[in-house]
TrEMBL record, chains A, B:
This is BadM/Rrf2 family transcriptional regulator. One of its GO terms (molecular function) is DNA binding. Gene3D superfamilies: Winged helix-like DNA-binding domain superfamily/Winged helix DNA-binding domain. InterPro entries: Tscrpt_reg_Rrf2, WH-like_DNA-bd_sf, WH_DNA-bd_sf. Transmembrane segments: none annotated. It comes from Flavobacterium granuli. The keyword Cytoplasm does not apply. SUPFAM superfamilies: Winged helix' DNA-binding domain. GO terms for cellular component: cytosol. Keywords: DNA-binding.
Length: 137, 137
DNA sequence: ATTAATCCTATAAAGTTAGTAGAGTTTAAA
DNA sequence: TTTAAACTCTACTAACTTTATAGGATTAAT
């Protein structure tokens, strides 16, 4: 399941994607439109900025705007930024690999192979969902 | 990500699936073979029993055995039993549907449609992974 | 200087997870 | 009929994670 952070991030990105080119959106504007607690959204937008998904303009009349193309922001990206690994266990993860503490011999783990298959399929599906594809629906 | 409960459940089921037909496995035996805390495993096996995936024999020389066919226990089943919804948000879930509290109009939610697509694909993949398929690898 | 915005860090409340503990119940065998 | 060895059940707790909230610092336009 997605955390609220990830859900709010997606909603915020969808909001930004629907604005006119060159429009800058204030946090409060996004928060009210998407029904997200404002101070919580501040953190989320900062995370998105650090992830290079959005840009910001500081000071009066400042705000946020999409930095990447709508086609280049995928569900997989946002999941990884806020909720971490796509895989069902760290040992099956590409970007968040970690050994299971209870694992005796990873190469002989029956579970891991299946979970790698799942990760491959899920990742492919999640990379197919972009901000652009969601807005188009 | 899978909880430890779900991971341990899968490891226990894999252990049971590898035993001889009619063999009954004690909790301690599974716990040691799969490196799972015994008292924690007790709870998990009870959950699996309540889910009708395993059967048990009580008393001395009792233990657990697979109740369903290896082919009929899928990763999706175990995920749902221990970790709940396959979908990324409750509003996109089949078995654990719930409305988002921050949702203004579900029918107009841009996110939901995409998440339903993901759920369909992930579910299909997870239903393709069975205890039998994992043991065969 | 003032105003309105982002930026940053700390903290707290609530919920979830991962176990542990201990007693109860059932069954087989001596 | 007693004992041993197993499952069954409920309660609890410690650690962790999530979900925010608070308060100020910084930046930039007027």
């Amino acid at each position: 399941m997605l955390s609220n952070k990830a859900k709010y991030a997606l909603k915020a990105l969808l909001y930004l994607a629907q604005q006119d080119e060159n429009h800058i959106s204030r946090t409060i504007e996004i928060a009210e439109a998407a029904n997200i607690p404002k101070k919580f959204l501040e953190q989320i937008l900062l995370d998105l900025k650090r992830g290079h998904f959005v840009g910001s303009k500081q000071g009066k009349f400042g705000g946020y705007y999409l930095l990447k193309s709508k086609n280049d922001i995928t569900l997989a990206d946002i999941h990884r930024l806020f909720d971490g690994a796509i895989a069902l266990l760290p040992c099956a993860s590409l970007n968040f690999y970690e050994r299971c503490s209870d694992c005796v011999d990873e190469s002989e783990c029956l579970l891991r192979h299946g979970l790698i298959t799942i990760r491959e399929e899920t990742l492919k599906a999640m990379q197919g969902i972009t901000i652009a594809s969601l807005v188009k629906i």
